[in-house]
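Morning. Coffee machine broken again, so started the prediction first thing and wrote up yesterday's gels while waiting. Chain of 123 residues, entered below exactly as on the submission form.
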Amino acid sequence: MKIRKRMAAAALALGVGAALLPASAALAANSECTVQNFWTTCSTGNVQAHPTGHYIQITTFESYIPNPICDPSEIRFKLVDAVNGKVVYRGTGAVQITVGGLYSSYYGRLDNCARMSIRINNW
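Came back before lunch.
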């Protein structure tokens, strides 16, 4: 009988602990791509907009192996709605920005020189 009470107490404790975990941690997502040598474009995977803040953060940068031909200021990127294919934001250069007012799933796309990268996230 004592073992059953202890097991029930342990199950209850685990249930309460799980209920206290933040729900948004499971929804946090990011995706990144780097334009490979001899290519001029790449696309990230899809990331859902933040569920309550309705935003996506975008970071563009030169990868860890510098490109001798292109400069990070030449980065051209866009954020695309994965559902309808519409571009919701365009930009240039190495940036770290937040695009708000978003409610769908999105992907980032680079159109420029090799070794440039884009990362999108919702945290």
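The chain has one domain: 27-121. Going to sketch it on the whiteboard this afternoon.
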